[in-house]
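Issue 218. Parser rejects a valid record. Input:
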Amino acid sequence: MKVLMVSSEVEPFFKTGGLGDVLAALPKALKKANVDVRVMMPLYKCIKDKYQDKLHHLGHIFVDLNWRHQYCGVFEYVENDITYYFLDNEFYFTRAYDDLDLERFCFLSTSAFEVLPFIKFKPNILHIHDWHTGVMAALFDYKYQYQPFYQKMKIVYTIHNLQYQGKFEIGHVRDMLPLSDKYYYGNPDIVNLMELGIRYSHMITTVSPSYKDEIQTPRFGEGLDWLLKQRNDSLVGILNGVDYDIYSPEVDNLIAYKYNFDSYQVIKKKNKKELLKSLNLPTNTDVPLIGVVSRLATQKGMNLVLSIMDKLFEGNVNMVLLGSGDSSLENSFLYFQNKYPNKFRAVLKFDNTLAHKIYASSDLFLMPSEFEPCGLAQIICLKYGTIPIVHEVGGLKDTIQAYDEFSHKGNGFSFAGYNANNFMYTIQRALQMYYNKNEFQTLISNAMHCDYSWNSSALKYKKLYNQLIKIKKE
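Output the parser choked on:
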């Protein structure tokens, strides 16, 4: 089986969020499942030289976007037995995301088709991701499915976050793409690229089973619930995983001290002390430390976090927050840092090393997202013995089960009603559990022994691919 994944970002080359993490880990897991998977992305100029210097130039083609006749360089890079293709055009990819987004991703989507005969790779499955490549489904339906080279290909479209849909003025889209009037329907002024992906792909996946159900409702459907309900028979929820080669305290080179379940009681406190010291906070490791690593946005529940800060710091607790985003939220967290200088630190940037240290040092972790397609931080925390406190929604609901003191089952804490009272009550319950050492150790054991690796999810994707191309199960 041959699969080509096309994405706007892939870690470690370029990443702005969870999409990049998925495109780093899922191909590796599929490769282990004997799938010939290759990945295609833009050759952004911001990609580090250590990768650019190893690219192999395969040549170039020219790609037509209506009246435009554009150069497309093709480069290849192989790592861990996976081939990555980089498409080069300095006009479109000198910068990452800005006002050229429509042209940039129409170019990527069209070029991905046109490059395949040039590199002599004929995939069974084109697996496209998020709004950036949604137009590939429409292009296939309009044009490529009728050409012999592409006829037997099937398209799988993964929605990573339905909130970001790629909406553009219809005149600009018509100017970029050779699509007939059939593809411009509904809103007379706007074209929604994610809607094209949902409408014309053969199968649609979401990154958790609960999110698949939620987005078919008006509350979470972002205006597309009606279409997703129409395509329910072609909609599948497959939970994202975590790459434990990167996110495990036993192998993590970014933390001060490595540990496993047998050593966490001693070593985790050493990591905690190092982190507190580096942030100029009191280094009493018996005080519970709450971590937050998040994009600062209302979707991530950061307004809910702000609403409980005064109540939280009435108790004996420390908190470290890492993230950037909405400027008003950033300023609000700085206000609380100034108000509680001996209890709270807000580091307002993206820092991957510090993120790992927070996972390895915290006792509890807040993730009260208003909605969450999957979420990775809560899954990462489990392996590090850091107990998540989450809103019961999307992938958070699918991965975190509230701890029950009677059955001793569960791997975290969760709340249903999205309000400050429920959130604070759940935090207080978790803090009480922290001081009940035997129960808390049982909870940590449950968490650290969870397996949310990509292995099982990759097999579900492979089964889906098989169903599409009608290959019998091996």
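Fixed in the parser; the record now loads. The domain at 2-241+455-469 is CATH 3.40.50.2000 (Rossmann fold).
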